[in-house]
TrEMBL record:
Residues 88-125 are annotated as: Disordered. SUPFAM superfamilies: CoA-dependent acyltransferases, Peripheral subunit-binding domain of 2-oxo acid dehydrogenase complex, Single hybrid motif. Keywords: Acyltransferase, Lipoyl, Pyruvate, Transferase. Its EC number is 2.3.1.-. GO terms for cellular component: pyruvate dehydrogenase complex. GO terms for molecular function: acyltransferase activity. It comes from Pedobacter psychroterrae. The keyword Cell wall biogenesis/degradation does not apply. This is Dihydrolipoamide acetyltransferase component of pyruvate dehydrogenase complex. Pfam families: 2-oxoacid_dh, Biotin_lipoyl, E3_binding. It comes from the Bacteria.
């Protein structure tokens, strides 16, 4: 009997999967354990293995299409077996089999399989036609759980080059890192759809590979080219501006006789710069003042031409020097990383009700302990490493702070995965130190240093930044006394760490020099209450002021 293959749930947060590539086609024999396809989940691209022996009778999802978890993606059975009854039973209605009938017709060699829907007027070639041509359409893959588009950082192949299925075609800049893209196809690179430096939406066509000399005009006709459209719009803007300027510069004189002659553009620039048009000599016909006259105007020379007579007329009047400035700016395209930072932080701030709790920590004992630790530690331990360890230990005692809002339920995490905020050139990354409560200070220090090097080199992978339960953000090394942070969703809280300050403190009734560090705990009020956050900070304060407790 035919068996239905469904979209499996490949991660705990997966709700749908994108069919990245089929390794089998209708009519192919498969065995249990064979890789049928590659599926892009919200975390990574994974292999979909077969659990059946038989023949693939039906494929219901095209490459690049997304389907929900548990949706029908294929049918496996005996060769020639009628699979429609299985699909009919699955759908439970007459409407659904009608929709599934179209792919079935594509398998028939009869002429009716190619109806009017395949005509160019109906929108170009079908997937079956493209497959018969031996052509592979390469689309922008989903390389991270938050990626919506990718920028082509570099092409390693050019049109006309021979490629193999394991060749690296391009480097793609995502919102997290720069990653390599394989074509999974052999042949000639026939078309590059996105130029270097341009962005393409996930599943957008970026290249086409096939036999040399293949006519791909029909494929391109039904593709999209958003990047080119944007470029065209941008290229229109300067032309319009130049035309407007030209019109203004060529404007006729405002009047005759003693009236001042100047173009509207020249008048506007002179007004913005505070220039008296009476001091400017016009270079156009009839002495009319135009844009370049304003730009080349030098107040010092003009005042010299006027002579010293006006100045002598009123010696008592204060002389205010004239300063001419120029408004200027540069604009840069928003990087993939910055787009996602903007989106995610805005969602967190305007969705989770934030509140903040502040506390001061006496760091005298921590300074002494760190000095002693670094005399024997294999790697240098920082204050941030000590804070990460103390936070992880404190979270084990306060699981309510180590929690996250899940809509209709609250998840209390029993493990402590500490996200460590790191500044990089394009923005911010938060790699995760997993199970930090069980690791030594030396282990945490080595792991954080490695993450820092890989983050700056853009070599972090999705597995490195996923799964945090709490986040630590430290700006103390920049001399920031105290600050607040936006919660890194779906975490329930974030700790902001300031610099250690040498200030007078009162100890045993006497004012003495002290070393104080200020902490700010940002909480999602949906999962953490004020008293709960305060109790966590009290425990953290005790651990940092007596760091020997971290070793017990």
């Amino acid at each position: 009997m035919a068996e239905i293959v469904r979209m499996p749930k490949m991660s705990d947060t997966m709700t749908e999967g994108v069919m990245a590539k089929w390794h089998k086609k209708v009519g192919d024999k498969i065995k249990s354990g064979d890789v049928m396809a590659e599926v892009e989940t919200d975390k990574a691209t994974m292999d979909l293995e077969s659990y059946w022996d038989g023949t693939i009778l039906y494929i219901g999802v095209e490459e690049g299409k997304a389907v929900p978890v548990d949706a029908v993606i294929a049918v496996v059975g005996k060769e020639g077996e009628d699979y429609k009854a299985v699909l009919d039973a699955e759908s439970g209605s007459s409407a659904e089999p009608a929709k599934e009938e179209k792919p079935a017709k594509e398998d028939k060699p009869a002429a009716e399989a190619k109806g009017s829907s395949d005509a160019p007027a109906a929108g170009g070639l079908t997937d079956a036609d493209i497959e018969k041509m031996g052509v592979t359409v390469i689309r922008m893959p989903l390389l991270s759980d938050t990626m919506t588009e990718g920028v082509i950082a570099e092409w390693h192949k050019k049109v006309g080059d021979k490629v193999k299925d394991d060749d690296i075609l391009a480097d793609v800049e995502t919102d997290k890192a720069t990653m390599e893209v394989m074509g999974y196809a052999s042949g000639t690179l026939l078309h590059i759809g996105v130029e270097k430096g341009q962005a393409a939406k996930v599943n957008g066509i970026i290249a086409i590979v096939g036999p040399e000399g293949t006519d791909i005009s029909g494929i391109l006709a039904q593709g999209d080219a958003p990047a080119k459209a944007v470029a065209d719009k941008k290229s229109d803007v300067p032309v319009a501006e130049k035309t407007a300027e030209a019109k203004e510069e060529d404007a006729p004189a405002l009047g005759s006789g003693d009236r001042l002659k100047a173009s509207p553009l020249a008048k506007r620039i002179a007004k913005d710069k505070g220039i008296d048009l009476a001091q400017v000599a016009g270079s156009a016909d009839g002495g009319r003042i135009i844009k370049k006259d304003i730009e080349n105007f030098k107040p010092a020379a003009a005042s010299a031409d006027k002579g010293a007579a006006p100045a002598a007329a009123d010696k008592s009047a204060p002389s205010i020097p004239q300063y001419i400035g120029e408004e200027k700016y540069t604009e840069k395209p928003v990087s993939q990383m910055r787009k996602v930072i903007a989106k995610r932080l805005a969602e967190s701030l305007f969705t989770a009700p934030h509140f903040y709790l502040n506390i001061s920590i006496d760091m005298d004992n921590a300074i002494t302990a760190r000095t002693a630790i670094n005399t024997v530690a294999p790697v240098k331990v920082s204050f941030n490493d000590i804070i990460i360890k103390a936070v992880a230990v404190a979270l084990k005692q306060h699981p309510a702070v180590n929690s996250s809002w899940r809509g209709d339920k609250i998840r209390f995490n029993e493990h402590t995965n500490i996200g460590v905020a790191m500044a990089v050139e394009d923005g911010l990354l938060v790699p995760v130190v997993r199970f930090a409560d069980g690791k030594s200070l030396s282990h945490i220090s080595a792991e954080v240093k490695e993450y820092g090097q890989r983050a700056k080199a853009k070599k972090l992978q999705p597995a490195d930044w996923e799964g945090s339960t709490f986040t630590v953000s430290n700006l103390g090394m920049f001399g920031i006394d105290e600050f607040t942070s936006i919660i890194n969703s779906p975490d329930g809280a974030i700790l902001s760490v300031g610099a250690i300050q040498q200030i007078p403190v009162v100890k045993n009734g006497a004012v003495v020099p002290g070393n104080v560090m200020k902490l700010s705990l940002g909480c999602d009020h949906r999962v953490v209450d004020g008293a709960t956050g305060a109790a966590f900070l009290q425990t953290l304060k005790g651990l940092l002021e007596e760091p020997i407790r971290l070793l017990v």
